[in-house]
Amino acid sequence: MTENGETKSCVFNFVLRVSRKLKDYYLSGLAEGKAEPSPMKTTWYCPLDLSTVVEEEEDGVIYTVVVKQQHGAPTSPLTAVTRSQCVKAGTEEKLVLHLLHSFCMGDSSFITIFLSTYRSFSSPQRVLDILTDRLENPPGDERSQTRQSFNKAVCTVFSTWLSEYPEDFMSLGEPSRLLRLAPLLPHHSSAAVDLRARLLRIAEELSEKALLPDARTDQSALTSPPDPSKFEPTNVLGFPAAVIAEQLTKIETELFVRLVPYHCLGSLWSQRDKKGREGVCWSVRATVRQFNKLANAVLASCLWSTNLRSQQRARLLEKWISVAEECRARKNFSSLYAVVSALQSNPIHRLRKTWQDTDREAMRRYEELSEIFSDKDNYSQSRELLKEEGTSKFANLDNRLNNKHPTRSSAQGTVPYLGIFLTDLTMLDTAVKDRLDNGYINFDKRRREFEVLAQIRLLQSSCKNCTFTTDEAFMQWYNSVPTLNEEESYRLSSEIEAPGEPSPRGLTPTVIITQCPDLSSSRSSLAADSESLFDFTSPVNNLLSKLTKHMRSPSVSCLDVDTSTSTNDSTPATLTPSTPTKSHRRSASCGNNPLNNSQTSGPDMRIIRIRMDLQDGNLYRSILVTSNDKTPAVISSALEKHNQDPKQASRYELIQLLPEGKELLIPATGNVFYAMTSSSVDFLLRRKGGNPPAGSQPISTETSATFPRIKAKGRRLVRTLF
C-alpha cells in the first residue's frame, strides 16, 4: 500500500510540473508575440465580465435573473459570481409578499416601484391584508437570523409606505385593519415602536372620523359663479405682465406640489368618469381646472368687449404674449401653454384685423413661444427644455430676456405641462399588456411607468421651496372672469369679425391621424440606473421613441376635460377637440401617404374619437381601430366605452365628422380603417333612423373651436382609449 501511494504521489507531481511548464511556455510565447512590431497595440490579457440573463419561474412569480461572472487575473484563478433577481411578473399575492424579500434578492428598487404603481392592479386594503396574514406566520425562531432580517424588512416596507403615501391608510375608512396589524409588528426595535405608534394614531383618527359627522364641505361647490356684469376685461392691461405671471406661477406651483404622481397613471386616469369614481385623480383634475380657467381668462379678456377697435384688442393680445414670455422666464410651462393655446384657439385665431394690428416684435416672440410646444419628434423641444431646466435654478433664456430679470435671486422650480407625462403614461398603458398570457401581473410594465413618475417627483422637489406673495388686486380680477363655452366664444368672435374671411395666422392647430403598427412588438429590457431621470436613453423612453415612429404623433397637446363636475362648476368644457379650418396646416401624417407596412407583420392602427348623439356632445371616447376592424366591432367598442350596451350595436350607425360640417356614413359591414378619410379623427354614433341635428353649426369647423387646439394629435389620447 505504501509503494502504491508513493507511485500515485510521483505521478501527481509529474503532471503538476508538466502543466506548469506548459503554462510558462504559453505565457512566454504571448509575451514574445507582444514584443513583435505590429501596427496595432494588443493586450494579451483582458478580464472578462460576462453577464447571463435568464428567467426563472417559481410558484406564482417569474424572475429575471442576472448572473455576472468577473474573471480574475491569471495568477488568481478565482472567479467572482454575482446573482441578482428582479420580478418580471407574478400573481397579486406573490408581488405583495416580494416586498419583504426584495432587498435580500438584489431587487432594491422593488419597494419604491410597487408603492408607486400597485393601485393599477390592487388596493391598499388588499395589500394590507396580505402583509398582515404573512406577519401572523413569520419565518424562523424569535432570535434567528432569518427572523431578524424579516423584521427589518417589515419595518422598512411600512415606514416607506407611511412616509410616502399616508393617504393610503387614511382611505381605509375604518381602523380594524390597522388595529389588527399593530400588535404583529416587531417588538425589539425603536423603529418598530415608532411605526406602531404612527399606525395607532391613524387608527384613532379613523375612529373619530367614523363616529363624528364629516363637517368638511366642498368649497368649490359653494363658490358662486362670477357676476358677468362686474367683469372688466380691459383691466388686465393695468397689471404688469411680470405680476400676472408671478401669480399664475404661484397657483400652478401649489397645484403641482400637491399633485399625486400615481394619479397620472393611465389605468387610473381612464377610470375617472365611471360611476362611483368621481373623486379619483383629484389632483390631476385640479390641474385641468386651472389650465381651463386660465385659457378661459385669455379668451374672455380678448372677446368680451365686442365694441373695441382692432388696435385696442391687439393690445390685449400683446399683453398675454408678454405674460406667456414671463411664464417662460419662470419655467412655468403649464401656464405658458394655456396662454399660447388660448391665443391659438379658433375664436381668437380667426380675428384677422386684430392680428394685423398686433406689434410685429410681439408676434415674433409669440411664434418662438409657440414652437416650444411643437409636436415635432414627440414634443422633443419641450422634453429637451425639461431635461435642461428641470432641476436648474433659473430658466435658460437669451440675453434679451435675461436683461429683463437682472435681480433674480431665489431659485425657481419647474412647473411642467402635465399633458406630456399623461401622454407618456397613456401610451405605455395602451401599448403594454397589464397581464401575461398566463394571467400574471406584468410588473415590467410598472417599472416603465415608474420611470415617468420619477421624473414628475423630481420636478416636484424643485418646487417645494418656492415662495410667492399674493397680489390681491389681480386675483380679484382673475376670479371675476365669467366662463365662456365654445358656442359663446365663437358668437362673440363672430360679432367682432364676421365669419367667412380667411385667417392670416400660420400658427394653427393640426389634425393628425395616428398610425401605430405592431405596438406589441416592443420588448422590455433590464433597466440599469440612468445617469439622470431625464436621460432619454432609458428603456421607457426607448419604447416611447418606438411608438413615436409608429404612431407619427403620439403626444397629446391638451389636458382633458373634467366631465364629472356639476353644472354649477365654473370649469368650462373647453378642451374638446375639433376639426381645423381650411387655413390650418397639415402634418405629413395627415395626407394621403400610403401606410408603410413593409417592415411590420401586425395590422395598421389608428386612434379615432367617437361621441354619441346625445346632449353631452363633447364627451368623446378614444378607440384604437386596426385594419382588421369592421363597423359592428367598432360600434360595439364605442358603446362599451360610453357605458352603453354593446349588444345594441346593430341599432347604431357610425358617421365620420368632416370639415365644413360634412358627414361620411361608414358602411354597416365595411372596414372602418379603409373607409374613413384622413381629414378628421372625429366620429359620431347615431341611432339608425335618427335625423341629423338642425343645422350643421355644432359640428362645423368654426363653431367647434376649443383650446388648446394646437397640434391635437389623435385628439385627447390622454383619455387613455377608454
TrEMBL record:
<dbReference type="InterPro" id="IPR029071">
    <property type="entry name" value="Ubiquitin-like_domsf"/>
</dbReference>
<dbReference type="GO" id="GO:0007265">
    <property type="term" value="P:Ras protein signal transduction"/>
</dbReference>
<feature type="domain" description="Ras-GEF">
    <location>
        <begin position="240"/>
        <end position="499"/>
    </location>
</feature>
<feature type="compositionally biased region" description="Polar residues">
    <location>
        <begin position="589"/>
        <end position="602"/>
    </location>
</feature>
<feature type="compositionally biased region" description="Low complexity">
    <location>
        <begin position="560"/>
        <end position="581"/>
    </location>
</feature>
<dbReference type="InterPro" id="IPR008937">
    <property type="entry name" value="Ras-like_GEF"/>
</dbReference>
<keyword id="KW-0344">Guanine-nucleotide releasing factor</keyword>
<feature type="region of interest" description="Disordered">
    <location>
        <begin position="555"/>
        <end position="603"/>
    </location>
</feature>
<dbReference type="Pfam" id="PF00617">
    <property type="entry name" value="RasGEF"/>
</dbReference>
<feature type="domain" description="N-terminal Ras-GEF">
    <location>
        <begin position="83"/>
        <end position="207"/>
    </location>
</feature>
<dbReference type="InterPro" id="IPR000651">
    <property type="entry name" value="Ras-like_Gua-exchang_fac_N"/>
</dbReference>
<dbReference type="Pfam" id="PF00618">
    <property type="entry name" value="RasGEF_N"/>
</dbReference>
<feature type="domain" description="Ras-associating">
    <location>
        <begin position="604"/>
        <end position="690"/>
    </location>
</feature>
<dbReference type="InterPro" id="IPR019804">
    <property type="entry name" value="Ras_G-nucl-exch_fac_CS"/>
</dbReference>
<dbReference type="InterPro" id="IPR023578">
    <property type="entry name" value="Ras_GEF_dom_sf"/>
</dbReference>
<dbReference type="InterPro" id="IPR000159">
    <property type="entry name" value="RA_dom"/>
</dbReference>
<dbReference type="GO" id="GO:0005085">
    <property type="term" value="F:guanyl-nucleotide exchange factor activity"/>
</dbReference>
<dbReference type="InterPro" id="IPR036964">
    <property type="entry name" value="RASGEF_cat_dom_sf"/>
</dbReference>
<dbReference type="GO" id="GO:0005886">
    <property type="term" value="C:plasma membrane"/>
</dbReference>
<protein>
    <submittedName>
        <fullName>Ral guanine nucleotide dissociation stimulator-like 2</fullName>
    </submittedName>
</protein>
<dbReference type="InterPro" id="IPR001895">
    <property type="entry name" value="RASGEF_cat_dom"/>
</dbReference>
<dbReference type="Pfam" id="PF00788">
    <property type="entry name" value="RA"/>
</dbReference>
